[in-house]
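User: I'm curious whether this sequence folds into something compact or stays loose and floppy. Could you predict its structure so I can see for myself?
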Amino acid sequence: MFHVGEAIAQNMHMAPIPSVFSVQSEVREAFGWSEHDDTESAEQLLRTLEQHALWSLGKRELTLERLRQRLVNAERVVLLGAAVEPSELQRFNETNVVFVAADGAVGVLQSYERLACIVSDFDGAEHLDKAAEAGQTIVAHAHGDNTSRWKRMLTKWQEHSLPPSLILSHQVTKELPGMYNFGGFTDGDRALCFVLSMGVASKNIELVGFSTKEIGAWSATTTPSLKMRKLEWMKRIVSELGFEESIRS
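Assistant: Here's the prediction. I'll summarize afterward.
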């Protein structure tokens, strides 16, 4: 349907940005993670959903196109990071915006009426579960250490009376038909890469709740030192995409 890297670059009127993809290999090297594990998780997810009644390739592609239309037609797309405070959303009450939440940050929303999607690697806990039960759209990410988590959660979600709609993403160098590598590393910066790849102009995007000074209230339970290291990678990617001023640091 589109080439993600070219879409991001065209949207921002610049040359292709290989770093939003190559950073994934740098991150694996920095943390000692394996691309083989990332690939295996992604390929397992593809096989699991290959003939799935709810989340087949055709249905996922339809979900992606509908979401793209909603994003490009919005007056403004507001990305919600893990450090977002409810008070920060009040100024959007009377505006024509849609929200894209980074995983557990969806919990800050009182209503899903203006939620376009959640970008998640399945660790948004009860906040992600609640949105899934309400049938929201999830850009679901597979990587090496979340295989058991996505298996458990998809098994649970498919039983809901109104299951979520899915789009699949990965972070490996090979092409995986039926999945997309939108670039980035953390849910927050991957959400930015995703929105840009959908054709939303950078001037119509706003980031709220992105911080390197603290672990956000909506973050998954994690080792603090590890999380802070991850946030530095987030800052690098967001900065390279021209949104450095949106980060609290």
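Summary: The chain is about 40% helix and 15% strand. The mean pLDDT is 92.
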